[in-house]
From TrEMBL:
UniProt membrane topology term: Multi-pass membrane protein
Pfam family, one: Plug
Coiled coil segments of this chain: none
Name this protein carries in UniProt: SusC/RagA family TonB-linked outer membrane protein
GO cellular component: cell outer membrane
Subcellular location: Cell outer membrane
Length: 973
């Protein structure tokens, strides 16, 4: 796109949004943009008007201006047809899907491409972490993409757009193109920014009753004197109501070395420093320096970015260094070489544990605890001998932690480290035989090593331990293509053919202490009380591919394209052929009316086979823990199938694009129909066979939906412009069948009660649990104790939303720019363990009953005989009924409306900066400023995810979501 000045303009491209620092001075220039060029599959640039499938482009400024540190989560709300779940945990996982869920157990995320490199996006979080049962979220490997280096992002939304990538792009593809030097131009840029992060959405806690199970404080006789004490070993808050005239000895009153606290009485009142005071203001520092230089026949761009993130949980941080080199050179008149090299080092320290785990501070703050605890006192968490001071003492004269560690012990003693060193890039040659015929060959590589260690200190409530994991991953693709482009009268021809050879290897080494640690503070497997346990696994897969594409155009208004790719797998018996056919009709070329600036009708069809894991065909013995020094082997729980076939995904889509009134109004709408068959599922079988499951091909899943985008420019003059871009996605997912009479496939269990399942005739990701029992009039029924009756296990809703929507407004007044994005989700469900236990233990605000727990509760509803319920429950009995009775009490709607981001920018005029600089731009930004329409006000629906895989919607114990504010300054030399 030609840049005319430094204004801000939102353009609608063919199926795309592009936010750029440009304001077109002529509508004819804008029309050329609409009919311009876009990056498509395999990095090939194509005319937008010729594309017969849905794609969308975003300029890199959208990501960098909003202070984004994650290039994938930045897509949230900006792209029609894309659902992004981006929890605000430090460096956490980002879940992204396009056009719904297509596989029960396989991959449902799109392929990530950076400069043609298929980038590994592995998520190392364990199954317990993903289901909310405790663990640290180490994020996705695409966190290594540097937002400051992104030139543009092209989203290929479905099979017709991404079929040339083969089996891995069955869920679409996201193509990141990084910045490169421009011929004849030298540019130096320095970009520096800082942002601040503060807690926002979190459960509201009651502040009127303290810890314990009784309405009065217990007593203890110490040195002949009787004192009020606390039920130290209890981690619930059904204790006495606060009373400033009531004095007691607290958890920290029994350690002589802390003279200011020893045997000092304190008032039974709410704490001065509460849970919110535990969290700090997080900070993110980003500095980027880049140099672009154009020589006679060579263009070079060098970039370095340093990012440091300090999380909201004290003693947690991430450091990231990105180095990038982009080179292209004309070796001769016909031969061109280009290369991109990236090195990324990501180092995390003490990423906070989330979910229902021993080291999850969220679980201790919002689910189990005592509300009178003052966090200024908790900071004295350790004795001189190194042992812990826990508020959850076993008794007044025994300081051993009963259930919970002191939260400051957790974050300073039970820590973790992770590091990843990554190289990815490409190198290639292009030879032009003529203007019509050329060949190109490239090597793409992505390799990294990752190490994760975690530790639980001696003296913790849980068993001390030390774990270490080392992981290596590498993938190389060798690709060559021959292109031929020509014109024959009214006809144009674009065609190419090529091959790809892919080899991927990864291995994992795990080491775990057994039975605890011997010497405190020594974290080495040799310090294990019993012989430590180690295991390793190695994987290797390869795919060989041939592909071709033919596109024929007629008089620049009618286009027909066909592609084909054949893959030969190492992990499956049969090869697979992926065809696609697309067509587009640019009817605005024929109508030629003033009010119609551009109009195109398009349609596409594709068939893609999904790959699978290596060694899926075989059945291999597993090595278990040795018994009395002898090795133990066993068969796996799931039997392999030698003749397993890939899942088949067939897509049909049709779309209409139109722009009116010299491009002041435009829309793009797509309808798609996707069917996946031969789903790979583990089928339950008779245990007498020696296995619990057998892998089979069975079942069918469908996705049908609409993607829409509208762009309006209500105001536009020489000084002021206003652009609006609205996108909308509605997808209807349905699991049509599994196998025979099998109606449910259980994906996982929540930490305690609910299950996540694929259920026939429902949308994927059904939450299974007990519901209320209703009478004929729709009234909830209580049992003879006054508690709600529970139904049998049934569907309580799917985690998938009904629709997603985004609305971006961009304003430009002279050198000022303002842009903000409203992001909306409607529908979907999640199960909250925090709500279940927070009610059970008397921690949440509702359990205070307005300061009148003593009055108890009469639940709205009727008795089994139909008469109104009049049975009064005491407060603890009512609170505890949220567990082990009606699960629907803890299932909430996942809808939200968010002010996702807002950016205000100012380009300093030349009169201020002089001629030594090309420009200075100052921008202020904020993200996740406000959220509305939350069903449960204490949980952000996006924070119910602890991984980017298929396990979603099971909230086990989430940290607060956050707001972020920042400022960024860009210098151009």
């Amino acid at each position: 796109m030609k840049k005319l000045n430094t204004s801000l303009l939102v353009l609608v491209l063919t199926s795309s949004i592009a936010v750029t620092n440009a304001q077109q001075k002529k509508d004819t220039m804008k029309t050329k943009e609409i009919e311009g060029v876009v990056v498509t599959a395999l990095g090939i640039k194509r005319e937008k008007k010729a594309l017969g499938y849905a794609s969308q482009e975003i300029k890199g400024d959208v990501i960098s201006d909003a202070g984004q540190t994650n290039a994938v989560s930045a897509l949230s709300g900006n792209v029609a047809g894309v659902q992004v779940t981006a929890p605000s945990s430090m460096g956490g996982s980002t879940r992204i899907t396009m056009r719904g869920i297509s596989s029960v157990t396989g991959e449902n995320r799109p392929l990530i491409i950076v400069d043609g490199i298929p980038l590994d996006n592995s998520n190392v979080n364990g199954s317990d972490t993903e289901r909310g049962a405790g663990g640290r979220d180490y994020g996705d490997a695409t966190f290594d993409i540097n937002p400051d280096d992104i030139e543009s992002v092209t989203v290929l939304k479905g099979g017709p757009a991404a079929a040339l990538y083969g089996y891995r792009a069955g869920n679409g593809a996201i193509i990141y193109t990084t910045k490169s030097a421009k011929r004849g131009k030298t540019e130096i840029q320095f970009n520096t920014g800082i942002s601040f992060e503060s807690i926002y959405i979190r459960p509201k806690l009651q502040n009127q009753y303290g810890g314990g199970l009784q309405s009065s404080l217990p007593t203890a006789t110490i040195d002949g004197k009787t004192y009020n004490i606390v039920e130290f070993g209890t981690d619930e808050s059904w204790g006495p109501k606060y009373d400033p005239n009531l004095y007691y000895l607290g958890w920290n009153s029994f350690d002589p070395e802390f003279g200011n606290d020893y045997m000092k009485l304190k008032k039974w009142v709410a704490p001065n420093k509460d849970v919110d005071d535990f969290f700090r203001v997080g900070t993110t520092y980003t500095n980027n320096f880049s140099v672009s230089r154009s020589f006679e026949n060579t263009n070079v761009r060098l970039s370095y970015t340093n990012t440091k993130i300090n999380g909201i949980v004290p003693n947690s941080e991430i450091k990231k260094d990105n180095f990038s080199l982009n080179v292209n050179t004309q070796l001769s008149e016909n031969l061109k070489a280009d290369a991109v090299f990236n090195y990324v080092r990501t180092v995390g320290f003490n990423r906070p544990e989330q979910g229902y785990g021993d080291n999850s501070v969220a679980q201790k703050f919002y689910q189990w605890g005592q509300r009178q605890l003052d966090f200024s006192e908790l900071k004295d968490y350790k004795l001189a001998n190194g042992m812990q001071r826990s508020w959850n003492r076993t008794s007044w004269d025994d300081g051993t932690p009963n259930f919970s560690d002191n939260p400051y012990w957790t974050i300073y003693e039970n820590t973790s480290d992770d590091s990843r060193n990554r190289f990815f890039g490409n190198a290639g040659l292009t030879y032009n035989f003529s203007k019509k015929l050329y060949v190109t060959g490239k090597v793409y590589g992505d390799t990294y090593s990752q190490m994760i260690t975690s530790r639980v200190a001696v003296g913790s409530a849980a068993l001390s331990k030390y774990n270490i994991q080392k992981r290596n991953n590498s993938e190389f693709n060798y690709e060559a293509r021959i292109h031929y482009n020509d014109n024959f009268g009214d006809f144009s021809l674009n065609t190419f053919a090529g091959f790809n050879i892919m080899n991927r290897k990864w291995d994992v080494l795990n080491g775990n202490s057994v039975g605890g640690l011997i010497i405190p503070g020594l974290y080495n497997l040799a310090n294990s009380k019993e012989a430590p346990r180690s295991s390793n696994a190695s994987y290797n897969l390869g795919v060989r591919s041939l592909f071709a594409s033919v596109s024929v155009g007629y008089r620049d208004f009618l286009y027909l394209e066909a592609t084909g790719r054949n893959d030969w797998f190492s992990m499956l018996n049969d090869d697979q052929f992926y065809p696609s056919v697309t067509g587009s009709f640019v009817f605005s070329k024929i109508l030629n009316v003033d009010w119609l600036s551009f109009g195109k009708l398009r349609a596409g069809w594709s068939r893609i086979a999904g790959g699978s894991d290596p060694y899926i065909r075989g059945t291999y013995a597993s090595i278990e823990t040795p018994f009395n020094g002898s090795p133990v082997y066993s068969m796996p729980n799931t039997k392999g199938e030698p003749m397993i076939k890939p899942e088949i995904k067939t897509t049909k889509e049709i779309g209409l694009e139109m722009n009116f009134f010299k491009n002041r109004l435009g829309f793009d709408v797509t309808y798609y129909d996707v069917k996946t068959t031969d789903l790979i599922i583990p089928l339950p079988i008779d245990p007498s066979t020696g296995y619990g499951f057998k892998r089979i091909n069975a079942g069918e899943m469908t996705n049908k939906g609409i993607e829409a985008m509208v762009n309006i420019t209500p105001v536009k003059n020489s000084n002021f412009s206003w652009d609006m871009t609205w996108n909308f996605t509605k997808n209807k997912n349905k699991l049509v069948e599994l196998q025979g009479d099998l109606q449910n496939y259980i994906l996982t269990n929540a930490p305690f009660r609910a299950q996540l399942a694929a259920q026939v005739s429902y949308s994927y990701g059904v939450i299974l649990g007990t519901d209320f029992v209703y009478d004929a009039n729709g009234e909830k029924v209580v049992d003879n104790t006054g508690r709600y009756k529970a139904s049998e296990i049934r569907s309580l809703g799917s985690v998938l939303p009904n629709y997603n929507m985004g609305l971006r407004n961009s304003f430009k007044y002279k050198n000022f720019g303002l842009s903000f994005l409203i992001d909306m989700q409607q529908g979907g469900k999640y199960f909250s363990t925090t709500h279940m236990w927070g009610m059970y233990t008397g921690m949440l605000e509702e359990t205070a009953l307005g300061g009148n727990r003593e009055a108890g509760v009469i639940l709205p509803g009727v008795k089994e005989n139909g008469t109104p319920n009049d049975i009064r429950l005491n407060a603890p009995t009512w609170g505890k009924s949220f567990y082990n009775t009606v699960d629907a009490q803890n299932v909430f709607d996942a809808s939200y409306i968010k002010l996702r981001d807002i950016t205000l920018s100012y380009d300093l005029p030349k009169s201020l900066i002089g001629n030594s600089l090309q420009g200075i731009r100052v921008s202020a930004f904020a993200r996740n400023l406000f959220a509305w329409n939350l069903d449960f006000k204490g949980i952000d629906p996006e924070n119910t995810s602890y991984g980017s895989g298929n396990i979603q919607g099971l909230e086990g114990g989430s940290l607060p979501s956050t707001r972020m504010y920042g400022i960024n300054v860009n210098f151009k030399f």
